[in-house]
């Protein structure tokens, strides 16, 4: 039962050291949250979205499962990881542009990693989004792509797709998604590939290709669970709930009960019916 909605929400709540009462306040009853966490009730899309947001699950603020070295000094690498995990992208951008940090980057693998992190910092840590700068950094990362960091190569490609999508460049976005997912089944498993599937689905969602996003995200969930991983499942469920809600908003005849049944089928869980 480790891959169910309830389990993922419970784990996330405990990570935050919050009680059921704190999380359910003004959203649902504590007993309902308990039923969800114990897999006796599958929430409808609106309820799942509200719970995910209360638990701090974000659509586009992510952390990698495994990070990459930008130099030989562990202190520099640890600093990058800490700033990323705290989503402090303004400080990350300033740190990466420091002359001493730039000079510490030596190998091709470190260069690939450095420019990927620089792109993320430019994307998330600036007041005014500058797609040209972000793309430049991502292309520099790809120019130094190494066999040892194949997942990072795919991350750069799918991030390029995301930048294109938010810039309204649909064709480029779809091409980059195709590149990021190409021969994914042949790739050695790496939990960062969970992020690739997720971001690719977000790209489709951003482009209002909801059915395609749904299909790809369910494929991603299958990939995650088939590899006995939990990483990115909460975000994946959140995205699927957003898709379900948007599809429901477009088809008003679909009731909340229908959407609950939809999620139950999707996650292979039973819908709890109160007597």
UniProtKB/TrEMBL annotation:
InterPro entries, per database record: Cro/C1-type_HTH (IPR001387), HTH-type_regulator_Rgg (IPR053163), Lambda_DNA-bd_dom_sf (IPR010982), TPR-like_helical_dom_sf (IPR011990)
Record-linked Pfam families: HTH_3
Tree of life domain: Bacteria
Domain HTH cro/C1-type, first and last residues per copy: 9-62
Entry GO MF terms: DNA binding
PROSITE patterns: HTH_CROC1
Name the UniProt record assigns to this protein: XRE family transcriptional regulator
Organism the protein comes from: Secundilactobacillus kimchicus JCM 15530
């Amino acid at each position: 039962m480790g891959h169910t909605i309830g389990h993922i929400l419970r784990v996330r709540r405990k990570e935050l050291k919050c009680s059921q009462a704190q999380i359910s306040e003004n959203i649902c009853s504590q007993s309902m949250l308990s039923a969800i966490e114990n897999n006796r009730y599958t929430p409808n899309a609106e309820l799942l979205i509200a719970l995910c947001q209360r638990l701090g699950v974000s659509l586009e603020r992510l952390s990698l499962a495994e990070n990459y070295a930008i130099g030989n000094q562990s202190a520099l690498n640890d600093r990058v990881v800490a700033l990323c995990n705290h989503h402090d992208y303004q400080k990350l951008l300033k740190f990466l542009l420091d002359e001493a940090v730039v000079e510490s980057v030596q190998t091709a693998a470190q260069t690939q990693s450095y420019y990927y992190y620089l792109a993320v910092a430019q994307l998330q840590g600036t007041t005014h989004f500058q797609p040209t700068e972000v793309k430049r950094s991502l292309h520099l990362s790809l120019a130094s792509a190494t066999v040892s960091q194949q997942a990072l190569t795919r991350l750069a490609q799918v991030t390029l797709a995301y930048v294109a999508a938010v810039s309204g460049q649909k064709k480029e976005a779809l091409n980059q998604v195709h590149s990021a997912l190409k021969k994914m089944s042949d790739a050695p498993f790496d939990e960062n590939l969970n992020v690739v599937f997720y971001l690719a689905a977000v790209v489709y969602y951003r482009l209002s290709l909801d059915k395609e996003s749904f299909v790809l995200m369910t494929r991603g969930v299958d990939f995650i669970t088939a590899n006995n991983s939990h990483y990115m499942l909460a975000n994946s469920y959140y995205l699927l709930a957003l898709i379900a809600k948007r599809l429901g908003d477009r088809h008003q005849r679909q009731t909340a009960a229908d959407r609950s049944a939809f999620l139950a089928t999707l996650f292979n869980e039973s819908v709890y019916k109160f007597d």
